[in-house]
Structures are given as structure tokens and as C-alpha cells.
Specification:
Elements (H helix, E strand, L loop, with lengths): L1 E5 L3 H14 L5 E6 L15 E6 H5 L3 H6 L3 H9 L11 E5 L3 E3 L9 E2 L2 E2 L2 E2 L1 E2 L9 H15 L5 E2 L6 E4 H10 L1 H5 L6 H12 L8 E2 L2 E2 L19 E3 L23 H20 L1 H17 L10 H10 L2 H11 L11 H11 L2
Parallel strand pairs: 1-2, 1-4, 2-3, 8-12, 13-14
Antiparallel strand pairs: 4-11, 5-14, 6-7, 9-10
Helix pairs in contact: 6-8, 9-13, 10-11
Length: 354
């Protein structure tokens, strides 16, 4: 089976390739889609997997000008992945993956295809995504609006783990959304594919499964996860987490057969330890207190409460720098996760491996 990765980060992508080669034995070829100037950097020597590199300029065809003119990363991702059905050498069924999505354990093919039907992995309902600060955030809202308007389900399949794709079904979805593409609307490729394909061809899919990605989100403070994995088989590899004083300090980002199993166990242990602190009563109480303060300092919030005098007082006596910080933080939309005290997370990260 082929695995297709779109990337402009050769070092990270080739590190991930080591994990795929060792822990996904059913994968026999990787296809990298990258800028033409990087094709040589994406061509490793040796290794178990065959490697094919496709310049994104060749893949995009008529969409190249729109791609190069767009500052929207979500739209760029949609244009690239929605162009994959045009690749003649692409198999009828393949895996689509991010360049930093790495297996933690050996992965069986049945995780994706079982009894002739496909498994898709979901993270939350698109309606529950409230942030509006990045291209990705806005793409989630746009995708929900498009799917809802057309009468499709609105689950999110942006799980940051490989997902199984049927080439012909992807082509159908791309055709279904041709008018949105032509209008330059940013679409989440994962959610658009699974919600539409499963509706059109229900017998081809198993019911959705909960995603199995460690560090998606990287830390509990990043956003309020809609659902939580019961097990972890892939990692969203975020290099800053391996830095000094960070969650995975002392662990390597490279594949090592002798240390893979214990390192994976350790990473899961540390991430779950941080989650445990985040879920504790004290942390929940602190977040609630921060939420109350935030409500008090935001313009126009007082009239929405039953105790306007309290909120007016909080707004009046909270220093301006804190008011600005709270207002900016609230724009991330993941209330109340942003207000968790970061020093507690850092402390627990250092202690988790003891």
C-alpha cells in the first residue's frame, strides 16, 4: 500500500519515514508531494520503502496559479490533496498522512481496511470548534458550513493520523465541491472526504472510530478536545515538546529499534500525567476562577450576567495589561483551556518521568 505525504519539511518527513518503514509493514511505497526545488532533499538513499517524489507544481495543474497566489494554508492543503486523483501511479486505495504523524507501535492494515470496508477516525463535531485565529480554524468553520448546507454530517476527521482514502471516492468528493473550490473556499480535506464519501457510499465504511493520536492537542491547554482517545497508536510529533524543560525532554525524535517501545510508553505516560493534572479539581477550580475574571474584563460581557456589579468591578480593578491579555486569549476560542496556569504544566512535565 502507498502512503502519500504532502510536505515542505524534508528533515521531519524523512524522520517520519523511518517510523513508517519499521512499524507499518503493509506500506511498501511512499509518495512525497513537495515544492520542485526540494525534490532532491526528499529522495533518500536505501531503506525498505520505495520513494516517489512529485513536484507540487506538476500535481496542481490548472490550480497552480490559485495555489501560488493564496496566503491561506488550509486552501493550499485542499488544493494539493484534492488533486491527488489525477496521479496515474497512485493506487486505488492509499493512505494519506501528515509529515509528522508517526506510529508509536506496529500498525496492522486492519486498522484502516477490515472486511473490505474502511475505518475513518474522528476527533469531534465541527460545530464544537470555536477558535477563529488561524487558517486552519477558519477552514473548520467553512467546512462545517459547506457540509451543513449540503445536508452532510459535520464530524471532524482532522485527526493528525494517517487515514485510508479511496481514489475514486476522493474524485467524487472533489467533483461534489467543485463550485466551492472554484470560489476559492478553504475546505478541510479530511472532514470533507469522510462525511461526503460515507454518506454517498455507506456500505464501504465502518462506523467512525475515535482517533488514536498522542499529542493532538500537544498539551491540554492548546484547545478543549471534543473526544479523547482510549489508546494511542500515532504521535503528532511536535519538535518543541522535545526541547529543554518540555514534555519529552531527553527523548529522541529519531527512530531507534532498541528504544522505540519504552520511549513510546514513556511519552504516553508523560502526556497522560499532564492530562491528569489538567483534569484535577484544583486545576478545574483555577480555570473557573480565570473564566470569571475574563468575563468581568471583556467589554460588553457584564449585561450577560446575573451579577453585573461584580463583573463591572472586575473590569474596573483589573490592570489594563491583564485585560488585554485576557481579551487576546479569549480570541483563541477554546474557553476555558487557555487559562490553565502554564507553570503547573511545565512543572508536571519535568516530574512526569521521575
Amino acid at each position: 500500500m502507498q502512503i502519500v505525504t504532502i510536505s515542505n519539511r524534508p528533515r521531519i518527513a524523512l524522520e517520519t519515514l523511518e517510523f513508517v518503514a519499521a512499524l507499518m509493514p503493509f506500506v511498501d511505497e511512499v509518495i512525497f508531494v513537495c515544492p520542485r526545488r526540494q525534490t532532491e532533499a526528499f529522495t533518500p538513499t536505501g531503506g525498505r520503502l520505495a520513494v516517489k517524489v512529485i513536484p507540487e507544481e506538476d500535481l496542481l495543474g490548472d490550480q497552480l496559479q490559485r495555489f501560488q497566489a493564496s496566503p491561506d494554508h488550509q486552501l493550499m492543503n485542499w488544493l494539493l490533496r484534492s488533486s491527488l486523483p489525477s496521479v496515474e501511479s497512485l493506487q486505488e486505495v492509499f493512505l494519506m498522512a501528515d509529515d509528522d504523524s508517526r506510529p508509536l507501535v506496529e500498525i496492522p492494515v486492519e486498522m484502516f481496511v477490515e472486511d473490505g470496508r474502511f475505518h475513518g477516525y474522528t476527533t469531534y463535531a465541527l460545530a464544537h470548534w470555536t477558535a477563529r485565529t488561524t487558517d486552519y480554524d477558519l477552514g473548520q468553520h467553512r467546512t462545517r458550513e459547506i457540509l451543513d448546507r449540503r445536508g452532510f454530517p459535520t464530524l471532524s476527521y482532522s485527526a493528525h493520523m494517517p487515514q485510508i482514502i479511496d481514489k475514486a471516492l476522493l474524485a467524487e468528493v472533489v467533483t461534489e465541491l467543485a463550485s466551492e473550490t472554484e470560489a476559492g473556499l478553504a475546505i478541510d480535506e479530511w472532514s470533507a472526504y469522510f462525511n461526503i464519501a460515507q454518506t454517498r457510499h455507506p456500505k464501504r465504511f465502518h462506523p467512525p472510530r475515535t482517533y488514536q493520536t498522542l499529542c493532538w492537542p500537544a498539551l491540554p491547554t492548546d484547545w478543549d478536545a471534543g473526544v479523547r482517545p482510549a489508546t494511542f497508536r500515532f504521535e503528532n510529533t511536535y519538535p518543541p515538546l522535545y526541547g529543554e524543560g518540555a514534555l519529552f525532554e531527553g527523548l529522541s525524535t529519531r527512530f531507534d529499534a532498541n528504544h522505540q517501545a519504552p520511549d513510546s510508553t514513556e511519552k504516553i505516560h508523560r502526556r497522560m500525567a499532564v492530562q491528569s493534572v489538567y483534569d484535577s479539581f484544583v486545576a478545574r477550580l483555577l480555570r473557573r476562577a480565570a473564566w470569571v475574571v475574563r468575563r468581568g474584563v471583556q467589554t460588553g460581557e457584564a449585561r450577560l450576567t446575573h451579577t453585573p456589579a461584580l463583573y463591572r468591578a472586575l473590569r474596573r480593578f483589573t490592570p489594563p495589561p491583564i485585560r488585554r491579555f485576557l481579551h487576546e486569549a479569549s480570541c483563541h476560542g477554546h474557553d476555558p483551556a487557555w487559562s490553565f496556569p502554564s507553570f503547573m504544566t511545565r512543572y508536571r512535565c519535568r516530574r512526569a518521568g521521575d
